[in-house]
Design a protein that fits this description.
It contains 19 helices and seven strands. The chain has about 375 residues and is an alpha/beta fold. A hairpin with a 2-residue loop joins strand 3 and strand 4. The N and C termini lie far apart (about 65 Å).
């Protein structure tokens, strides 16, 4: 018989906008949060409880794996589950896992293109010594992102790929079995509800920037995000039970993944009590801090204030001011704009009213 038409088997059509569970990226991001110990009090819940439950040795090794070897453990494509992805890492030849990390350092899209000389550097040259490796990292990243002590520890494994491979896969298996797997079973249905609710919304009728604001509930810097979103053919939103009011970002294939705190779309009739409760906890967690309440009161009473004014009036350090303003903005209680080169903030009364309404609705009888 004649050969079948070439169109008899078509690749699945992928939407340019999507909301998906993405279990492997979800798990890796949650594990990264455990290594960001400076944020655990703001993230609270499972993140804080897990860090406190880990031994000092577990925390030290976890930081090495999730920070020092982040681009070795980061997935390059979608996986149906984290155990499936972990099995893939276990089967990967040790030298290939090491080269995955080094190639990422050379080819990260968010960094300037490497020079021809650096592109031609062999692995032996990059790993000639710990100092050579540190110099290589400093050429690719600014000093604030290079932790010499951590990277020297990483270097000791990079020059011994089998030991690196065993340490990474053994640790990931341990933290999954001991900490993350029970939590994933607890939150998976809630995350699935978030995916279902947004996929029943009018998301496909929006452009990428509108979808970003609709799904995350945040007002982005339009110029920055318009350029960022234009670089990718596909945008997928990944709900997380642990990121709170912050956002995460991952790149894979032709896709930009935005990790957001699991929530329901505004105005939805989709019933998901666990999801509603999680969002209320995130919003109230932002308010459950004396400094953040003082900032809100200052801006509410006196009108728009720039970050420098807030820092001086409340006698805060620059890092503390930045941290608190970021969280208040991410949760929507403050709206930011640029004014004469400075970040300035206004109170978002609608967001405060919406939080009160959400709490009232949750506690009201059906």
């Amino acid at each position: 018989m004649p050969a079948p038409d070439q169109d008899i088997m078509l690749s699945p059509v992928r939407s340019a906008l999507d909301v998906g569970l993405e279990p492997a990226f979800n798990a890796i991001h949650s594990l990264v949060l455990l290594a960001k110990t400076q944020h655990i009090s703001e993230l609270g819940g499972w993140v804080e409880e897990t860090v406190l439950a880990m031994s000092a040795l577990e925390r030290q090794r976890h930081r090495l794996v999730m920070i020092g070897f982040f681009y070795a453990v980061l997935p390059r494509r979608s996986w149906p589950s984290f155990p499936d992805y972990l099995a893939h890492l276990v089967s990967m030849p040790p030298a290939k896992l090491r080269d995955k990390l080094l190639n990422a350092y050379l080819n990260l899209p968010c960094l300037p293109q490497v020079s021809a000389d650096m592109q031609e550097m062999a692995v032996d040259e990059i790993l000639a010594s710990a100092e050579t490796f540190l110099d290589f990292l400093r050429q690719r990243f600014s000093d604030e992102y290079v932790d010499p002590e951590l990277e020297r520890h990483a270097f000791a494994y990079l020059v011994d790929p089998p030991s690196m491979h065993k340490m990474i896969t053994t640790h990931l298996r341990h933290v999954w079995d001991s900490y993350l797997a029970p939590e994933w079973r607890r939150v998976e249905l809630m995350l699935t509800d978030a995916v279902s609710a947004f996929n029943q919304s009018e998301l496909q009728g929006m452009d990428k920037l509108q979808a970003f604001q609709y799904v995350t509930g945040q007002t982005p810097d339009q110029d920055h995000w318009r350029k960022t979103l234009a670089k990718h053919k596909r945008l997928v939103f990944i709900p997380s039970a642990h990121v709170g009011s912050y956002l995460g970002r991952v790149h894979f294939e032709d896709t930009l993944g935005i990790i957001f705190g699991a929530r329901l779309p505004e105005g939805t009739r989709f019933e998901a009590p666990d999801l509603s409760r999680a969002e209320i906890l995130t919003r109230l967690g932002t308010l459950a801090d004396d400094t953040r309440l003082r900032i809100l009161r200052l801006v509410a009473e006196e009108g728009e204030k720039c970050s420098q004014e807030i820092m001086q009036r409340l006698q805060l350090s620059q890092s503390a001011t930045s941290r608190h303003l970021s969280q208040l903005s991410a949760t929507g209680y403050l709206q930011a704009r640029r004014r004469e080169g400075a970040n300035c903030y206004q109170i978002n009364g609608l967001r405060i009213e919406d939080t009160v309404h959400a709490l009232t609705s949750y506690l009201s009888p059906a």
